[in-house]
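Appendix B. Extra example for self-study. Work through it before the problem class; the solution is given directly after the inputs so you can check yourself.
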Amino acid sequence: MPGITIRGITLATIAAICATLVAATNHLTAARIAANEQAWLEKSLEPALGGLDYDGSITAAKLVLEPPHDLPGDDAVIIYRVYSGGAPAAALFAVTAKGGYAGPIRVLVGIGAAGTITGVRILEHRETPGLGDGIEASRSDWVHQFDSRSLGDPPVAGWHLQVDGGEFDQLTGASVTPRAVIKAIRETLLYFDAHREKILTMPATAEAL
Amino acid sequence: MTPGHFIDRLQTGLWRENPGLVQLLGLCPLLAVTTTFVNGLGLGVATLVVLTCSNVLVSATRRWILAEIRVPIYVLIIASLVTCTELIIKAWFPALDRSLGIFIPLIVTNCAIVARAELFASRNGIAPSFFDGLGMGAGFALLLMAIGFFRELVGKGSLFADFHMLFGGKTLAGLVVVDGGWLLAVLPPGAFFSLALAVALKNYLDGKRDAAGRT
Ligand SMILES: Cc1cc2nc3c(=O)[nH]c(=O)nc-3n(C[C@H](O)[C@H](O)[C@H](O)COP(=O)(O)O)c2cc1C
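Solution. Structure tokens for the complete assembly:
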């Protein structure tokens, strides 16, 4: 085909122009996007601290536990250690709850240094709107029943749904979703209880517990 | 081209050949994101911008684009525009980005855009192509907003929730008309029902007008 060169050149020129356009936009927006991501992360973590006063940023002293670990889920777990007046005040665990109705649920469990829950929030889920999505703090008060509770209050055996013989409410017409979340909270509490000192004091660079 | 032509172009996109209602193009985003008015507005405006820019660029370069390579070039142009739009939304409307998620990059697969490039912009001047993109984009955006409005009202009992995602400011609950709603409307089947109602309504109105025109 005689015109193959001209077609190749046209295509290459247009590709180069398009790439330049995208690169320029990326250059102009990259800093803002990174700042948005960071702000969004801090904002989505903060509610699980239940109004606790903390120094600086939540994400500064984070710890990443690669699987296998004894926390819920098969994914890496991120632990954000939060300090108040220089002393460890709480740890936020971003864990994956298995057994949701529509796949894994990302749960953020905030535990104070003394072992009391500062707050629980759902980071990500695909549960059915109107049924399972009651676990979101914006949809119902369900997650608030865990505030200020701890492993002794109730004892481990009580950390189940009422339908399963425990102390916590389920959601109307949906017990699969809350069961998965409560299991993740229970396992996180047990883990924190067993490793409290290490979790709160370990430098952020350490690899494993 | 006279102003009459421009108005005609706009009317074609908004009503006569509305991409969603008549050509039934771009249904994937249409059905997936229209759970609220704000989502419909956000994706509608993003699609409008991409469609108008892509029409203008395709029309401006149509003399150099040989028939054999036109499709890869449309793809390049549309993909770059969508990527830039996505970056801009991420930078200035992060909450909207969270809500629309994957559907912003998926604008690239909206066949309404490549269809206008192929059927109109590659054969017409820049000004008509601009108005064609504007009309088609606005037709699509208005349909997204109408369906979002309807599904939000019926499915959640609210109107204009989450406006802060587009216009900043603190979280507004929107208007709560009734507490809770008929859940089906915000689930996927509700999207199909709503679109079917919209298409039926348009056909009914057109039919009535035709009948009135004949008598
Ligand atoms: C389409 C559909 C979606 C459902 N979504 C959920 C869900 O997201 N979360 C949930 O716990 N149960 C969901 N269920 C209900 C569960 O199948 C199960 O019946 C329920 O959790 C049992 O709750 P109960 O012990 O209160 O009867 C759904 C059921 C159907 C038919």
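Self-check: The CA atoms of residues 21 and 203 of chain B lie 9 Å apart. If your reasoning did not lead you there, revisit section 3.
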